[in-house]
């Protein structure tokens, strides 16, 4: 569908919302729809968003299908979002609405390829910090095995290279490896 390709190429939906708690920018479903409307008019396409409440293993979720159509041709993407009926500070309708909005946003992002930027969930910094890995120095015996494996089979070379990532090498060890890697 050439219209979808054109819209995917041209559409920009900036992240104009700001989460003060997590200190990140994001876009919501309404932002995407506002950015999309001129392209729907330009290419004479119709966007249809359909929500369906489903249940799997006792978990309720909204499944949204976003479909772009022109004449008798169309393309669709589906996305889901869980529903927490016990969400603190929300009544049941708000909980369903929040999940619907999130599923719609994800379906639209998938259909129009709007996932080029990292999600706020992956860039927030209010989660506990993970300790950094401290590399140790290999013993002479460990280093000898690494050198031996670097001269071995493909499988052994792979194991040796993985082991090298775990160790901090001194200058003599680095010089030894210069011709092997």
Features:
181 residues, elongated, alpha+beta, two-stranded antiparallel sheet
Spatial order of the strands forming the largest sheet: 3-4-5
H/E element sequence: HEEHEEEHHHHH
Major sheet summary line: 3 strands, antiparallel
Structural class: alpha+beta
Beta-strand residue fraction = 15-25%
Total number of strands: 5
Helix segment tally: 7
Chain-averaged pLDDT? 84
Q: Which range best describes the helical content: under 10%, 10-25%, 25-40%, 40-55%, 55-70% or over 70%?
A: 40-55%
Any low-confidence stretches, pLDDT <50, length ≥5?
119-123
* Shape designation: elongated
What distance separates the N and C termini?
A: 48 Å
The gyration radius over C-alpha positions equals 25 Å
List strands and helices in order, with pairings:
Elements: H1 2-10, E1 17-19, E2 24-26, H2 29-42, E3 46-56, E4 59-70, E5 73-82, H3 92-111, H4 120-123, H5 140-150, H6 154-164, H7 171-178
Antiparallel strand pairs: 1-2, 3-4, 4-5
Helix pairs in contact: 5-6
How would you describe what is shown here?
The chain is of the alpha+beta class and 181 residues long. 43% of the residues lie in helices and 22% in strands. The protein has seven helices and five strands. It has helices at 2-10, 29-42, 92-111, 120-123, 140-150, 154-164, 171-178; strands at residues 17-19, 24-26, 46-56, 59-70, 73-82. It has a three-stranded antiparallel β-sheet with strand order 3-4-5. α5 runs antiparallel to α6 (154-164). The longest helix is centred in the middle third of the chain and has 20 residues, at 92-111.
């Amino acid at each position: 569908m050439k219209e979808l390709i054109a819209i995917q190429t041209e559409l920009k939906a900036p992240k104009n919302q700001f989460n003060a708690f997590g200190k990140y920018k994001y876009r919501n479903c309404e932002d995407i729809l506002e950015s999309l409307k001129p392209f729907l008019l330009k290419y004479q396409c119709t966007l249809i968003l359909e929500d369906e409440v489903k249940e799997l293993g006792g978990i309720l979720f909204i499944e949204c299908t976003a479909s772009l159509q022109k004449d008798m041709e169309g393309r669709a993407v589906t996305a889901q979002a869980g529903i927490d009926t016990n969400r603190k500070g929300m009544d049941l309708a708000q909980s369903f609405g929040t999940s619907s909005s999130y599923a719609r946003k994800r379906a639209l992002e998938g259909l129009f390829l709007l996932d080029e930027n990292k999600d706020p969930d992956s860039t927030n910094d209010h989660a506990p910090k993970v300790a950094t890995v401290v590399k140790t120095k290999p013993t002479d015996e460990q280093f000898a095995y690494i050198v031996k494996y670097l001269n071995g089979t493909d499988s052994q070379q792979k194991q040796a290279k993985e082991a090298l990532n775990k160790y901090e090498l001194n200058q003599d060890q680095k010089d030894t490896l210069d011709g092997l890697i």
